[in-house]
Amino acid sequence: MTMTQHGRNLDTEQWQELDRLHHLHPFTDSKALHGKGSRIITRAEGVYIWDSDGRRILDAMAGLWCVNIGYGREELARAAYEQMQQLPYYNNFFQTTHPPAVDLAELLSQVTPAHLNHVFFTNSGSEANDTVVRMVRRYWDIKGQSARKVIISRENAYHGSTVAGASLGGMKPMHRQGGLPIPDIEHITQPYWYALGGEQAPEEFGLQAARALEEKIRALGANRVAAFIAEPIQGAGGVIVPPRSYWPEISRICKKYDVLLVADEVVCGFGRTGKWFGSEYFGLQPDLMAIAKGLSSGYQPIGGVMVSDAMADVLNYQGGEFQHGFTYSGHPVCCAVAAANIRILRDERIIERAEEQTVPYLQARIREFESHPLVGEVRGAGMLGAVQFAKDKRSRRPFDSPGEAGNLCKDHCMDNDLVMRAVGDSMILSPPLIISKTEIDEIMEKATLAIDLTARDLGIS
Ligand code: PXG
Q: Which of 25, 29, 65, 68 to mutate to test the pocket of ligand 1 (most atoms within 8 A of CB)?
């Protein structure tokens, strides 16, 4: 089959060859990739993507956790087209602004928690978190507490791939490449009961994991700590839903020591948890919120930092110029598309309808895997799910070669036209919020086959 791009009509092998010659892929073992050639995705609609061989694949990851609204919404294409004709680019530096940025800023103040009414625009989640680092340090400088520089994060967190984002993240293999983390970033344990909870009950373990924050603040000295950053539910770390005891304790500790609370809502935001934001799901009141992905449902690259009224007051009126910004901060086309996306989410009640109907269905159906001999735990919330494999169900003993089972299963999913992501030995789901019950049934049918085949490969029955 041939595919046309800008008048070039090439077949699969030709695109693959050009890709191999010229394109460096993110997070990819290129040697392994070039052995078999990239899969070429040519179009998408609803929850499905199509490859260059004409195969229809159910995308249970919504791209990279981002296509919340589903593929193929013409309104978003029209918003981009019309904005490009009207004003394809202008910046927000030097005392200018434009309607798409202002319109989106106001919309965001309406859909985010009540005390977050200000936004700094970026082009990605990584840039949002870079902005967080600079902004919290700037805030404490203005407040006359310049010693508050340290940002505490968590092991196995994902906050992006730029120098600051990867430093905030707790992914050891990323730190090993390029001498990270940068100074004044500290990591504490994560609330991952299945892997770390031992004999403790989940709620007791959740409290203990939260108290690691208090210990770290005390060890550093509270007067040195600027902020604590965390994803309400860890996404790329394996859809880790903390025990209910965790977040209230974290909130208490942040308040007690006057440490800013930053919620990284890049995955959890815009309906992923069944609420508009993960912060609402857990009842958090963050000072800052990093947003991206679902903000535009991935149709345009845009992110941002939502800022509380109290912090915005200090940043706006007490400190003079914040020397930070990107050429494309508040890009008009990205803003117009994000605003169209948010209006559709809001006006069609996509999040509320998912929470009422398809979220309970997905969560119930994936729990059917609990009885499978290969499965140690099924966890999830909203339109997020994880099926964790274990060598021994009862003791929660992991496999001797971590990641092998996950990799096998991911390949079986793909052979069966289903995209699921493997994180170690957990299989992850994060489908578009518009997925139907019938499409959830299709995921279940395909995932069941993939898990059965994986168990067979590993000799488990
Ligand atoms: N924060 C969180 C919580 C994320 O998940 C980022 C920040 C960075 O966003 P940008 O837009 O800079 O990528 C992310 C991104 C995966 C995967 O395979 C996850 C992400 C990105 C790429 C792949 O799980 N998360």
A: 65
Position 7 scores a pLDDT of: 85
Given 347, 373, 396, which residue is the final one in a domain?
Answer: 347
| Count of other CB atoms within 10 angstroms of residue 15 | 19
Condensed to tens digits (0 to 9), the pLDDT of residues 184-227 reads 999 999 999 999 999 999 999 999 999 999 999 999 999 999 99
126 Cβ below 6 A of ligand 1: yes
Q: What is the 3-state secondary structure (H, E, C) of 53-84?
A: CCCEEEECCHHHHCCCCCECCHHHHHHHHHHH
Q: Whose CA is nearest to atom 5 of ligand 1?
A: 267
* d(CA 384, ligand 1 centre) in Å: 15
pLDDT in tens, 415-427: 999 999 999 999 9
- Structural domain span for residue 378: 39-72+350-458
- Per the structure, the count of domains in the chain is 2
Which tokens sit at 157? 């967190």
Q: Is residue 32 part of a domain?
A: no
Domain CATH number, residue 376: 3.90.1150.10
Q: Is residue 196 part of a domain?
A: yes
Q: What pairs with residue 282 in β-bridges?
A: none
Residues 371 and 433 both lie in one domain: yes
Pocket test for ligand 1, best of 132, 158, 264, 328 (most atoms within 8 A of CB): 158
Q: Grade residue 48 by pLDDT with cuts at 50, 70 and 90.
A: very high
